[in-house]
Write a structure and sequence with these properties.
With 147 residues, the chain is α+β, with helices and mostly antiparallel strands. It has one domain: Aminopeptidase. The protein contains four helices and seven strands; from the N terminus they run E-H-E-E-E-H-E-E-H-H-E. A seven-stranded mixed beta sheet has the order 1-2-3-4-5-7-6, with helices on both faces. A hairpin with a 2-residue loop joins strand 2 and strand 3. The radius of gyration is 14 Å and the shape is globular. Bound molecules: coenzyme A (COA). The site of coenzyme A has 19 residues, from strand 4, helix 2 and strand 5. This is GNAT family N-acetyltransferase. It holds the Pfam family Acetyltransf_7. Keywords: Acyltransferase, Transferase.
Amino acid sequence: MSTRVGPARGEDLTEILALLEGSGLPREGLEGHPALVAREGERVVGSAALELYGSSALLRSVAVADGRRGEGLGGRLTREALALARERGARRAYLLTQTADGFFPRFGFRPVPRPEVPEEVRDSVEFVSACPGSARAMFLNLTEGAR
Ligand SMILES: CC(C)(COP(=O)(O)OP(=O)(O)OC[C@H]1O[C@@H](n2cnc3c(N)ncnc32)[C@H](O)[C@@H]1OP(=O)(O)O)[C@@H](O)C(=O)NCCC(=O)NCCS
């Protein structure tokens, strides 16, 4: 069965939250932000979401169901989310990760000291309370060609 990546629908929220929980990612603060899902039939097998703060985007909730990892879905979701961020006018993307700082450099993300993250992004639920202080912040300049 083919897997399609596209916008999340309201009714996907429960499945996305379960996927995040199963992947060890924070669920707090997700609702109300644009999200993408990888869908196989009616089942959600992957997610990515964006919090948009003017010209800055926080990429979050990139997760692929156990058993479906290593098939390129995480890459597809990340690229589509970054394309959506550009479409919405973001010029910079940030993320926080504890376990995947080896995954995101392939899209151009580089570690960035937290104080260099714009204040509006640092004020997000993900930064303030959902992700532990030990999580690494990463940055991507969205105005330099897509990968
Ligand atoms: C990170 C994650 C989204 C990757 O999804 P995926 O569908 O397996 O990724 P892809 O199939 O597109 O890419 C696989 C490649 O990424 C690498 N990779 C996957 N997870 C990685 C990680 N945590 N750290 C470093 N590299 C990773 C694989 O080794 C593989 O490398 P290769 O192409 O050189 O063989 C998935 O492992 C996941 O859901 N992890 C738990 C949640 C998480 O940590 N999310 C990121 C924080 S927002």
